[in-house]
Fold:
Amino acid sequence: MGERCYTPRTLSFSREPGLPVSDASQHADASLPGTAPNIDPSRVAPMMRHLWSPVAAVTCCWEGRTNAQIAVTVNAASVVPDRPRVVVQIYKVNHSWALIHRSGAFALNFLGPDQLDLLRSLGFQSGRDAAKLDGVPYRLGESGSPILEECWGYLDCRVVNAMDGGDMTVYLADVLAGDTTGESQPLWWPDARRRLPDAWNAEWDEKAARQVEFSRQLLDKLGAPRQIGPDNRQSPAQDRTTP
Structure:
């Protein structure tokens, strides 16, 4: 835990990362396409609620500053077994967004079913307000990101590409190292919600509502949504995927 984290690389993005939340709304890219108009959320919500992965603590480090947040959707992004990749989305309201943006690295630490306390301490507060990894045993991985010692398993990752999604950034990353140390199944978000005390669920819902409002305001700055179809395709110049 006393090791110094380092920066393996710095990604080149069209906007300066590391801004306070109050300034993040200025970084919505008006050229990004919106979602299809007139969508009925109730029609897609039942499907969207099944798009979960095991609960992961996303850890990162930049110039000695560490942080961790909770992610409930992580996707594999390679069919080649010896070249594993993952995709994860980090919302700009989160403190981790600036650290990952600058360091170009993160680690995914998958929680076990007995780690609800860790889920709360890492996911219910902001790293701007607390040093969330104080007292949590970890070591630094090859990417320079913290690897939590007592999780179900981990993936140490280096970002190779990123796409601006307006209110969040989608990161594609190579897996540099990983291990599965738990014997049981990992913790899944629907199971976690069922097992969390009522007060914790209410606290999470309140936090999520604030994030939804932040994202809604940021996406509104992109202007009226437009649909991308055969007669209205993005040109290469509009492609905001950045190395």
